[in-house]
Amino acid sequence: MYFVFREVVKSWHNQIIRAIAQAEFPDTQPHWWAAKPINPKLSTNVFAINSKAPIVDVYFTGSIFHPYSKKVLNLLRSVGIQFETFPAIMIDRKTQQPLPLEYEVFHLLEMYPAFDMTLTEEGTGYIRNLTLTEECLNSKKLMFRVEEAADLVLMHRDLKDLLDANNITGCLYTPVDQFSV
Predict the structure, then answer these.
(1) 28 or 4: which carries more pLDDT confidence?
(2) For strand 143-146 and strand 111-112, is the pairing parallel, antiparallel, or unpaired?
């Protein structure tokens, strides 16, 4: 079984738990969602967080660049997920002081065809009734961008279970058959 994987938008004391980039991100070549190595490499990215809020492993940012904790990166590496990372520094949003947290910006480098387009409904600004091909279901790829909709990341149940067993936070998993945009 597959899930659409996203960073969760969660609130704490009437505030969204998020990491706010402290500088504009450059346009990347190739595009971030192309799932190909970025060249030239990104420099260190600084993100401000509310250090009093719960610290999560995968931060929502409102952009395509997301800081992931070393804990989640090590788990992804251990199961063979192909990705690259870029340096990140987490700072307190009020004091602007660096925090003793280890994060890196995660860039997934796997992309595969997944949707049976004869059964999936796609239109301007929407996708409904996502249906995976038999080939996709049988491949058991653990985590990848969808070739037909590169902004979507699919995650296999086995990887979701591993992340859950290791108490990885900041993740939202929507079963493919329940997902729509």
Answers:
(1) 4
(2) parallel
- CA 163 to each of CA 79, 131, 141, 150, 180: distance values in angstroms, whole numbers, following the listed order: 11, 24, 15, 22, 23
* Spatial contact of 173 and 3, defined as CB atoms under 8 Å apart: yes
Asked if residue 179 lies in contact with residue 4, where contact means CB atoms within 8 angstroms, the answer is yes
Q: What pLDDT does 97 receive?
A: 97
Contact (Cβ atoms closer than 8 angstroms) between residue 54 and residue 80: no
Angle between helices 157-165 and 70-78 (to 10 degrees): 140
Tens digits of residue pLDDT in 28-40: 777 888 889 988 7
Written as one string, the DSSP assignment of 71-124 is HHHHHHHHTT--EEEEEEEEEETTT--B-S--EEEEEE--EE--B-TTTSEEET
